[in-house]
């Protein structure tokens, strides 16, 4: 298949296979500026070591050697027997010179000589490369590329130099071509490999994969392979990676970043999960086409083309958590710009977090420090508080908080928040939220936190123009601008068509697998698994709840619910503390958060049912793990 590559890709040369006879000389070439091209010529039997085992990469290449390289790489076979008066039959490259002459790639001088042992100049090399381009029938296009020393190039050779530069085969330095300067064997090898990257010659082995070693924050060395399996077998060190066209496709450890919005099929829940671009995930393994990752606690596969693999030792920056004034601050790194781009505070810092020290977590629960040492679990209370909780705040207190918050954001001077105190769609929502809480048993403060996050405190375009506080029907792939007659109607639709039937009630609506725990949660559990592609959506909403509590006096955290996690699949939740009755429902997954209201019921925990139920519900103590929450 013809390979059409731009100049940038041509510089990212694919490496070559190490033949057994050249392994002893690998150290000589490893890290050489022209290592890729040299190994390519070796693989084609065009370059062989001298009697001392050296490939003389830095020696000047002769006219005879260059002709030989081209002849062997092109597998030339037609010979019309042309002879030069200074090339006798005993010369090592006589046959290759004849073959290249027959192909029209080289010519001699007017006196009948070829000067095979003379060092070749860069401009003479350029003309031979142009003739090879013509021989291979590679489209040359047109080029106006000139160098600062263009006048020093033989006038007849200037088009050849321009074409070579245009196709990315030859380069100058600081704008100069240096036409009379002699080329080295290493440079010649690179020029020829760049040329062959443009060919559709079926016999040309352009090696796709290479093993590189991480050294001092850079990738060095190359071993080239035609397929991933051979490259994988050759990995021997933890600091080695496999690259494909300079893209890392396998490593021993590191993390994975999504290049764009993707759908991850989770083997954990047997369902697809939407994942936003710039999401960091734990790297598990990879092959030539896909990467196995863990997103929070979801294990699945993504296409190589959709992600970037980053070894820890090559990381330029990574999202982290930090204890800032006793609060847990999450700082986000943008891998597209290589800058820390955003941050948010979403609760109090756990006791093990030392101020000023960076911590990392794949799921927002289990944290390690910078050297990977275990530090502990930290369940944010607001993030993992089940939705059936009842807030201690009244409608009036909620309205007073909204008024105060709107005044605060209006005073920030941000354009979107101009006139927030008079225009925000959150104004006066306290009564509506408390009515929803009573009727549907869904925490009023949780809904408020969700509204604040999704609607920019009621000031987003969807909120202002469509009364849509929650981005309902506004998907990453197909936004639908549905107009609601009122904000109250929008909240009721959120509850009655989304949260209640799909996200809170265990099992969800028939044919829809959205119920992964009745908490806002994360990509591990809760609404966040399916509701939003942002993996930190649940934590950000928890931050709104926390900051509201901070303003209002921590009435909810001061009188907290006891939260537990289920520890088995297929767990029955019963209307009485006995197995002698039909269950209300069953949790298909383990690790589901529940509110425990009584721990003294003869081997049972009394809990609040996630399925609407007028009385208490019960789960065997054996299958509930009480967790400590940070609040």
Structure commentary:
The chain has 631 residues and is an alpha+beta fold. It folds into four domains: 7-196, no CATH class; 320-377, no CATH class; 395-546, Lysozyme (Orthogonal Bundle), CATH 1.10.530; 562-630, Roll (SH3 type barrels). The chain is 27% helix and 21% strand.
Strand order of the largest sheet: 7-6-10-9-8-5-11
Q: Count structural domains.
A: 4
The number of E-state strands comes to 26
User: What does the largest sheet look like?
Assistant: 7 strands, antiparallel
Structural category is alpha+beta
Give the CA-based shape: elongated
Beta-strand share of residues: 15-25%
How many angstroms does the end-to-end distance come to? Answer: 61 Å
How many helical elements?
Answer: 17
Q: Can you give the mean pLDDT?
A: 89
Q: Could you estimate the helical fraction of the residues in percent?
A: 25-40%
Rg (CA only)? 34 Å
Low-confidence stretches: 1-27, 201-205
């Amino acid at each position: 298949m013809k390979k059409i590559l731009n100049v940038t890709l041509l510089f990212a040369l694919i490496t070559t296979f190490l033949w057994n006879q050249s392994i002893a000389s690998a150290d000589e070439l490893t890290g050489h500026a022209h290592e890729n091209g040299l190994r390519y010529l070796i693989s084609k039997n065009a370059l062989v070591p001298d009697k001392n085992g050296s490939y003389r990469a830095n020696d000047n290449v002769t006219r005879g050697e260059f002709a030989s390289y081209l002849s062997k790489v092109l597998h030339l076979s037609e010979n019309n027997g042309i002879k030069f008066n200074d090339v006798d039959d005993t010369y090592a490259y006589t046959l290759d010179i004849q073959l290249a002459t027959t192909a029209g790639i080289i010519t001699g001088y007017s006196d009948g000589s070829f000067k095979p042992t003379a060092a070749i100049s860069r401009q003479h090399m350029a003309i031979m490369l142009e003739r090879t381009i013509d021989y291979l029938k590679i489209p040359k296009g047109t080029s106006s590329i000139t160098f600062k020393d263009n006048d020093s190039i033989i006038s007849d050779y200037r088009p050849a130099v321009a074409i070579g530069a245009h196709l990315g085969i030859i380069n100058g330095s600081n704008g100069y071509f240096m036409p009379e300067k002699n080329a080295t064997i290493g440079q010649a090898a690179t020029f020829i490999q760049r040329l062959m990257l443009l060919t559709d010659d079926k016999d040309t082995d352009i090696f796709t994969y290479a093993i590189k070693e991480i050294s001092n924050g850079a990738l060095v060395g190359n071993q080239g392979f035609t397929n991933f399996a051979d490259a994988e077998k050759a990995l021997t060190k933890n600091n080695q990676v496999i690259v494909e066209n300079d893209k890392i496709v396998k490593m021993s450890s590191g993390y994975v970043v999504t290049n764009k919005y993707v759908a991850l099929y989770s083997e954990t829940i047997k369902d697809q999960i939407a994942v936003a671009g710039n999401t960091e995930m734990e790297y598990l393994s990879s092959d030539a086409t896909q990467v196995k990752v863990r997103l929070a606690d979801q294990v699945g596969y993504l296409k190589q083309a959709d992600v970037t693999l980053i070894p820890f030792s090559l990381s330029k920056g990574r999202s982290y958590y930090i204890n800032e004034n006793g609060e847990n601050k999450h700082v986000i790194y943008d891998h597209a710009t290589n800058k820390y781009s955003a941050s948010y505070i979403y609760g109090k810092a756990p006791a093990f977090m030392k101020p000023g020290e960076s911590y990392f977590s794949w799921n927002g629960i289990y944290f390690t420090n910078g050297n990977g040492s275990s530090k502990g679990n930290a369940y944010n209370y607001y993030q993992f508080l089940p939705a059936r909780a009842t807030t201690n705040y009244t409608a009036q207190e909620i309205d007073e908080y909204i008024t105060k918050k709107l005044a605060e954001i209006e005073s920030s001077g941000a354009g979107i928040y101009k006139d927030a105190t008079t225009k925000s769609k959150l104004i006066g929502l306290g009564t509506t939220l408390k009515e929803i809480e009573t009727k549907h048993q869904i925490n009023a403060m949780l809904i408020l936190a969700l509204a604040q996050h999704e609607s920019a405190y009621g000031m987003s375009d969807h909120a202002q123009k469509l009364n849509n506080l929650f981005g309902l029907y506004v998907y990453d792939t197909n936004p639908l601008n549905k107009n609601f007659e009122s904000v109250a109607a929008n909240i009721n639709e959120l509850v009655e068509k989304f949260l209640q039937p799909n996200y809170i009630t265990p099992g969800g609506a028939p044919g829809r697998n959205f119920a992964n725990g009745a908490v806002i949660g994360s990509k591990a559990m809760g609404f966040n698994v399916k509701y939003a592609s942002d993996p930190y959506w649940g934590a950000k909403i928890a931050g709104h709840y926390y900051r509201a509590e901070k303003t209002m006096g921590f009435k909810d955290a001061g009188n907290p619910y006891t939260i537990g996690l289920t520890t088995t699949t297929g767990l029955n939740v019963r209307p009485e503390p006995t197995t002698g009755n039909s269950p209300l429902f069953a949790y298909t997954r383990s690790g589901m958060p529940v509110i425990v209201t009584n721990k003294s019921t003869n081997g049972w925990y009394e809990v609040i049912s996630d399925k609407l139920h007028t009385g208490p519900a019960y789960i065997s103590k054996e299958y509930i793990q009480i967790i400590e929450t940070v609040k």
